[in-house]
Specification:
Layout: H1 2-49, E1 57-61, H2 67-80, E2 85-93, H3 99-104, E3 109-115, H4 119-122, H5 125-143, E4 150-154, H6 157-161, H7 167-175, E5 182-186, H8 192-197, E6 200-203
Parallel strand pairs: 1-5, 1-6, 2-3, 2-4, 4-5
Length: 223
């Protein structure tokens, strides 16, 4: 009798535990559902409020790796939707191969490279200033071209930092561009006035970088 009673007690206890665990699982699931409903409602509300449609100015800055990569990726996305793009590269010279441009050249993309290369290679302010002026003239043409849906001004922030391009001239061109044209500006140390003017600003910060550990820049990953 005692053995039978103990067996029954154990069975009842096991059943109670199973029921309790099942109730906990159901309760957790219900709480998860309620949280997701609130998140969805919040997202839906923000989507409903975002009714304005116009060109957006995006700045991608910071000391981390991936600013140009992000800019080129956005251009490629636009091309995937059948949109037209323009790209001006302000730092990397014509002798530098660029994997992103190797792809974009297969499409109808307006492209201009400043040509003089990194400033520490030319070591000539006069040469850099002349090259930057030509690149900015090409940029202004793109920023006034209504056929271009998106323009990437890659690493243009340095031109402002070094004083090669007048900030007021840049702001005027950006303000007067076609209404639906998107613009991406990449580079470190973006000027505060450009950050204030931008609609979207992303700052990429370094946590670790292989180059600092002695790993050289490699084709496909870095360029």
């Amino acid at each position: 009798m005692n053995d039978s009673k103990q067996s029954n007690d154990k069975a009842i206890t096991a059943a109670s535990i199973a029921k309790s665990q099942d109730d906990i699982t159901k309760e957790k699931e219900q709480k998860h559902i309620e949280r997701q409903k609130k998140i969805k409602a919040n997202v839906d509300e923000r989507i409903a409020k975002a009714t304005e449609e116009r060109g957006v100015l995006v700045v991608i800055t910071g000391n981390g790796k991936g600013k140009s990569t992000s800019g080129f990726g956005t251009v490629l996305r636009a091309i995937g939707h059948g949109q037209k793009a323009g790209v001006v590269q302000f730092i990397k010279g014509t002798k530098w191969e660029c994997g992103e441009m190797n792809i974009l050249k297969q499409f109808d993309v307006q492209h201009y490279v400043m040509g003089s290369g990194f400033t520490w290679e030319t070591q000539s302010t006069e040469t850099d200033l002349a090259a930057a002026t030509l690149a900015w003239e090409q940029s202004k043409k793109m920023l006034s071209d209504e056929t271009l849906d998106i323009v990437l001004l890659d690493e243009m922030t340095y031109m402002v930092k070094y004083g090669y391009i007048e900030l007021d001239d840049i702001i005027e061109a950006l303000n007067n561009r076609p209404k639906m044209q998107h613009v991406l500006i990449t580079g470190r140390a973006c000027h505060r006035r450009l950050l204030d003017l931008a609609d979207t600003v992303s700052e990429i910060q370094p946590v670790k970088h292989a180059f600092k550990a002695g790993v050289k820049a490699q084709k496909g990953l870095d360029w």
